[in-house]
Amino acid sequence: MATAVPKSVSPLIRAGRWSLLLVGVVYGSIHNNTLKKREQRVRQKEIDRVTHHAIDEIAEKKIKADQSMIDLAYAAGVDPNQARIKQQGQEKKSH
Fold first, then answer.
1. 5, 30, 57, 70: most buried, per Cβ within 10 A?
2. What pTM did the predictor assign?
């Protein structure tokens, strides 16, 4: 097997290759920063959406729990409004 002797590459071609490589690296860096900023905005919107959903869900659970306690009080034969007034009166006396 004969090995081919490499030809010498023109300095102009070498400079062109290196300059295109550097241009590609700079372009990639700029493009990456642009995509990062876009993704941060999308991520923040998603966090806001999930947070609002969780807050709404917690509020809904609290309303259901309060209603359940009122229904339970009526089932036990206790007026929830009177029980609440008594509890608030006892708290004022203890302070």
1. 70
2. 0.54
